[in-house]
Amino acid sequence: ATVCLDSPKIYNRGLEKRLISSTIELFVNRLDSVESVLPYEYTAFDFCSEKTMERPSENLGQVLFGERIEPSPYKVTRVNSNTNFSTETHRHIKSNKHVDSNTLPIMNSLVIVLFLSGMVAMIMLRTLHKDIARYNQMDSVEDAQEEFGWKLVHGDVFRPPKKGMLLSVFLGSGTQIFIMTFVTLFFACLGFLSPANRGALMTCAVVLWVLLGTPAGYVAARLYKSFGGEKWKTNVLLTAFLCPGVVFADFFVMNLILWGEGSSAAMPFGTLVAILALWFCISVPLTFIGAYFGFKKTGIEYPVRTNQIPRQIPEQSFYTKPFPGIIMGGILPFGCIFIQLFFILNSIWSHQMYYMFGFLFLVFIILVITCSEATILLCYFHLCAEDYHWQWRSFLTSGFTAVYFLVYAIHYFFSKLQITGLASIILYYGYTMIMVLIFFLFTGTIGFFACFWFVTKIYSVVKVD
């Protein structure tokens, strides 16, 4: 059983020699097992229970994790002089050995980021500078006919991508997830979402996701309009319901399994209705509002005009074909996060408390930079090979990091966990697929907007007739 302490007692600091005793009430939240991901209420079995005390209130995050807080007949009598209990707990947490084990991986990730930054800087400051200078010096028709490299595709580089509707919807949802993740981790770093307050992190993330429907609708609508799309009703409906609907459908199936197994993690019907109400009554209207303003604005102005007839793409080598580039593009971002991913999975599935939000926020920044730089680098190589289909490729290149995430989660299941039982296995992979989808949208959005900024920048400084 996992035992929860109530609020720490603040002891008298003025009495140094006199011993002060205080009784701390103990609460129990759930029963766990290393062989199952199904938590159960403490009173589900024939243990002692306290019927006279009232159950403490729970936040949404505790309900989602199945932590039904129950009073217990047990109490702890603590003898103390002038020591603050919360200070002792904080000191114990800070001295945990996991802090040291994160230092080397973080430094390794920083080295990777610096290496990538140097490569991108070399390309932008040397190669691009030479390209732009050479392109702008071509004044005669003979010189213009000898154009080569990325300038050749200036009339096609902003051509609308195929399936632009789906891409814009993904980017809208990815923007929503990106802002939610950034704000949640920022507040966690400031100490507002302490792990001592169980469920606070999940509650904050869900509330932020609900309130961030406006940026999702705006980004999806503005990009879809820039892609030349006209089915604005379909766009806003897909933005509001496609990705959230997939997540909710997966979650609902997992909840049915939890209901069937009698687990305390099964969300009560009333809470399920409340989640749906937040989605339909707050998130969906906010998405519609964002889409309204997105379609009301003019489309994004590109620095070069698009030709009416698409340019034929020459035969590509193996390394400049889309699929090998997409596979290679996700390796470096995943290499920056996989150590931290181990601790996150431990906190979810091995019932360990995660408290290293400072490290996690730093890894978040490293991930954003690495996804951006790796995607920009590959985008430049493809443009030099006269392949101008960069929109979907930039999204999938950094989004492929989620595939490595899935592979690592499978490896973690077989190497670190002792889970048995069909229900527990289905639950593990069901919840893993939700995390993979969210991570795919998150990283893919980073890659797209990084390449969008890069392509817009380089074609805005080159002279085009």
Automatic annotation (TrEMBL):
Pfam families: EMP70. Keywords: Membrane, Signal, Transmembrane, Transmembrane helix. It is a multi-pass membrane protein. GO terms for cellular component: cytoplasm; membrane. The keyword Metal-binding does not apply. It is found in: Membrane. One of its GO terms (biological process) is protein localization to membrane. The keyword Signal applies. The chain crosses the membrane at residues 106-125, 169-193, 199-224, 236-260, 272-295, 326-349, 355-383, 395-414, 426-455. Belongs to the nonaspanin (TM9SF) (TC 9.A.2) family. This is Transmembrane 9 superfamily member. It comes from Amphiprion ocellaris. The lineage of its organism: Eukaryota, Metazoa, Chordata, Craniata, Vertebrata.
